[in-house]
């Protein structure tokens, strides 16, 4: 029996032993916490294998007797893992596409079954944005879907830092004529940064993005030629996640070569 299957069985046993009426809170399962930590570690270190293992775990646990809110959370986590794998440079292009397609399918189904899950709407908008970026023709029918999903997320949780951050990322890649632009992206990302500062570090999952918001703000500042401020944001990201590979291996070296 592999480790993922063994952990899944242990999780099912834990859930079965819970007294009736116990909320399906995330802190009830050390296994979930451990795998989420592994997922986040893999994302920061650009380690596809760790992220794949986490995705497999959260796919497997859905076959067990989980409360509805925990099923939604497991589905979201698989989609998040797929999203991360779809943008990792070491992942083969065919797998990147498959993972992105799977993330889209999961999130579309999840937002239909759980219409109040703001995080799922925001991540779906981001996935649509990646799809558009890789094939401009898809913008003709995914652009509206992306903006609608983000609007829904913002309406549900306007002060959720991940929602605001992903709205800012979307604005970064959207021309001003279509409602995006660098000024809008910067304003949203700065607001997201403030919201992350207000969110407790031990906030229940989903709680990713605390370092990433500074990375994206740095990208906005670098694009307008403000190298000093961009470097400050990258350093803020590294202060939170010292091993953030994207910053260390790509963005800081790029900044050093900018004129």
The count of helical stretches stands at: 12
Which residues form runs of ≥5 with pLDDT under 50?
Answer: 1-26
Q: What order do the helices and strands follow? A: HHHHHHHHHHHH
> What is the overall silhouette?
globular
Straight-line distance between termini: 56 Å
Radius of gyration: 18 Å
**Alpha-beta content class:** mainly alpha
Work out the strand percent. Answer: under 5%
| Average predicted confidence as pLDDT | 88
For the largest beta-sheet, the strand count, sense and barrel status come to: none
Percent of residues in helical segments? Answer: over 70%
Strands, total number: 0
How would you sum up this structure, described in words?
The protein is mainly alpha-helical. The protein has a domain at 210-259. It is built from twelve helices and no strands. It has helices spanning 3-17, 30-44, 48-60, 68-86, 93-113, 118-134, 139-156, 161-173, 182-198, 212-223, 227-240, 245-257. Helix 2 (30-44) packs antiparallel against helix 3 (48-60), helix 8 (161-173) runs antiparallel to helix 9 and helix 10 (212-223) runs antiparallel to helix 11 (227-240). The protein is globular. The model is unreliable at 1-26 (pLDDT under 50).
């Amino acid at each position: 029996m592999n480790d993922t299957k063994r952990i899944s069985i242990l999780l099912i046993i834990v859930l079965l032993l819970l007294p009736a009426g116990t909320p399906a809170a995330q802190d009830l399962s050390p296994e979930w916490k451990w795998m989420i930590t592994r997922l986040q570690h893999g994302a920061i270190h650009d380690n596809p294998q760790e992220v794949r293992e986490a995705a497999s775990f959260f796919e497997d646990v859905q076959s067990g007797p989980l409360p509805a809110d925990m099923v939604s959370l497991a589905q979201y986590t698989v989609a998040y893992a797929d999203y991360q794998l779809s943008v990792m440079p070491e992942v083969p292009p065919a797998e990147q596409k498959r993972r992105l397609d799977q993330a889209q399918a999961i999130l579309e189904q999840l937002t239909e079954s759980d219409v109040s899950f703001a995080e799922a709407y925001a991540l779906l908008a981001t996935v649509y944005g990646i799809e558009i970026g890789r094939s401009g023709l898809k913008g003709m029918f995914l652009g509206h879907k992306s903006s609608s999903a983000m609007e829904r997320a913002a309406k549900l949780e306007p002060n959720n830092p991940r929602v605001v951050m992903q709205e800012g990322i979307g604005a970064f890649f959207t021309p001003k004529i279509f409602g995006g632009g660098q000024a809008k992206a910067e304003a949203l990302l700065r607001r997201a940064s403030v919201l992350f500062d207000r969110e407790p570090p031990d906030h229940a999952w989903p709680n990713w993005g605390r370092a990433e918001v500074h990375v994206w703000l740095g990208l906005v500042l670098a694009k307008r030629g403000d190298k000093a401020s961009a470097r400050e944001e990258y350093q803020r990201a590294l202060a939170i996640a010292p091993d953030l590979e994207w910053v260390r291996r790509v963005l800081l070296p790029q900044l050093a070569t900018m004129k």
